[in-house]
Amino acid sequence: MTKRFSNTSIDFKGAILFWTLIIIGLIVRIIMLSYEGIFDMATYQEWGINSLHKGLAAAYQGIYYPFQYQIFEFGSWIAEFSGAKYYIIYKLINLFFDAGNMVILYLILKQFRISKYYLFIYWLHPWFLLMFSQGYCDFQFTFFILCALYLAMNPEPRRLLASGLFLGLALHMKPQVNVIVLALFIYGCIIYIRNRDIRLLNIFVFPAIIFLNYSLYFWITRGDFNLLKREFTQLPAEMSLTSNFLNIWYPVAYYLKNPGDPIYNVFDFLSINQISIRTIALMLLFTILVPFILKFKDRFARSGTVESIYLIACFATLLFPHVMTSAHENHLFLGTVLIIPVLGRIRSIPASIAIHLLIILQCLNLYGLYGYGSTSIFKIPALPYNYEIAVLFSVLAVISLTVILIYFFSSELKLNRNG
């Protein structure tokens, strides 16, 4: 009786702590609604207003994909209807997806039997709060990716088909999702060739349908069936070597830039031994990604919880912005969300430190560039920041990523406790 009472008391105190932390995170986000955020938000508003008044066909100009434009359009409609400031509405939409991310991440942690308190790395860490304060829309496609991965943990064809619906919506939002689709397609082909198991390829049914629907829409409205295909397959003639992201290209761009120029004024049309840097980046991506996928060729089970899909998606999103050109300061957001359950299973101290350091460096870089955002309630002082500090951070970030990659390749990492 005494033992049962003691356990009940512990559970009650744990529940109070858990919900107190949830409420604290929510209050901080509500306070941050009053800050206008990053200048990207003005672009979101422009695309949303144009889509609302001119229609998606006339407003669509690429960079992001059509479904993201439609979410911006929805935000602009609410802002006009309510008379509220557009950035508050857009950040309220982010808050909806942010809370959704927390719920799905909680379910993923529960599925893998990982402590629910890892959830607060997402909900209370300054990196994720800073991303919310600045108003980046990455919370939105991250929600659909988390839903897709959660459903894909069950290898039943119907669940994988449903997973594909969320994956398809995310795919038509922002380019950061492309690497997940690429990695899972490679994995699906390997599983089929090796085991004649076509189940994983069910995940691509809805992405194909959504792509076809948008292509038909642009064909009917603009007479251009291949518009979306070009958005996915054709890159601009030149892109920045880095757009403020701390990766292997940052020190190179710093070395090559003219004094006084911003780091993003160095472009990736440069060549090494007549091989373009963009080509080198793609080769590096495939050279690292494909061998990692091959590690899981025998881990796509017919029943139980499938962790290989999650780990491949996590690895791909961590790797992609670190090796590709034109990566922006926010492009590791999805990777830092997906790595949280992995932290709950890592038993390597160097790898754990490397993951935490990588997240902290992203936070310091973003804070140094744009601050946390002044509100009517509190102000946080700016961080002294320059390109020399950013170069040091980029070196530390590359070292951290290297430690993480070595751990991913060298260990038999399992998210399932009994898997």
Describe, in plain words, how this protein is organized in 3D.
The chain is mainly alpha-helical and 419 residues long. It has 18 helices and two strands. The protein has a two-stranded antiparallel ribbon. Helix 5 runs parallel beside helix 8 (138-152). It is globular, with a radius of gyration of 22 Å. The model has no long low-confidence stretch (mean pLDDT 92).
The gist of it:
Helix content is 67%, strand content 1%.
Keywords:
419 residues, 2 strands
Q: Element order, helices and strands?
A: HHHHHHHHHHHHHEEHHHHH
Major β-sheet annotation: 2 strands, antiparallel
Task: Look at the structure and give the mean pLDDT.
Answer: 92
Contiguous low-pLDDT stretches (5 residues minimum) are none
Please give the alpha-carbon distance between the first and last residues.
35 Å
Beta-strand content estimate = under 5%
- Structurally, the number of domains stands at 1
Strand order of the largest sheet: 1-2
Query: What's the β-strand tally?
Result: 2
Q: Percent helix among the residues?
A: 55-70%
Gyration radius (Cα, Å) is 22 Å
From the spread of the alpha carbons, the general shape counts as globular
Separate helix tally: 18
Based on secondary structure, the structural category is mainly alpha
